[in-house]
Amino acid sequence: MNFLPTYGWYYLNANEKAPAWTGVEYLYQFLTSSDRLCGPRGEVVPLEQIEPGDIIQLSFDGETFAHTPVVVSVGEEPNPENILVAAHSYDSDNRPLNTYDYQALRPIHITKLISCWGFRAVKGERPLLQF
User: Fold this and answer.
1) Which of 11, 30, 87, 124 could share a disulfide with 20, CB 3.0–4.6 Å?
2) Rounded-to-integer distance, Cα 105 and Cα 103, Å
3) 21-71, pLDDT tens digit by residue?
4) Buried b or exposed e, range 70-100, using 16+ CB within 10 angstroms
């Protein structure tokens, strides 16, 4: 686990977790920034390139992204009607993307996972690499 306070990657319980676990913009920054030491990485892609396991961030006002469902299935030619997602805010699974009343989409393809093996960052300490 990576206990960096703002861009770490940890979830201990509902009260002790990295902001990326519940903050849409924090998750975006965590996934797309290239300077993170470990954890998943992603990049914004056209909707047609989305795959199961990726995420799609939704903006309901066209300005602020406020929801991040996970893609569980896509049709042969991905589009909002045949991309199915799972979400936790309002528990849903296999929900068609087009059933959300969104104004903008930010599809993020997960490209890789940088192992946290050997990485230790403890709350209140500077991050350390251990081998």
Assistant:
1) 30
2) 7
3) 788 999 999 899 876 667 788 999 999 999 999 999 999 999 999 999 999
4) ebeebeeebeeeebbbeeeeeeeeebebeeb
Establish how many alpha carbons lie within 13 A of residue 49's alpha carbon, considering only the half-sphere containing its beta carbon: 11
Quick check: pTM over 0.90? no
- What type of residue is 17? K
Selection from 35, 56, 38 nearest residue 47 by Cα: 56
- What are the phi and psi torsion angles at 45 (to 5°)? -135, 165
Contact 78, 50 (CB under 8 A): yes
Residue holding tokens 């403890």? 122
Residue 45 has what DSSP assignment? -
- Alpha-carbon span 11 to 64, nearest angstrom: 25
Q: Which helix (H) or strand (E) holds 68?
A: none
CB proximity list for 77: less than 8 A, separation 6 or greater: 48
Please provide residue 13's backbone torsions phi and psi, each rounded to the nearest 5 degrees.
-165, -175
Which residue has tokens 């006002």?
61
Which of 36, 77, 27 lies closest to 54 in space, CA to CA? 27
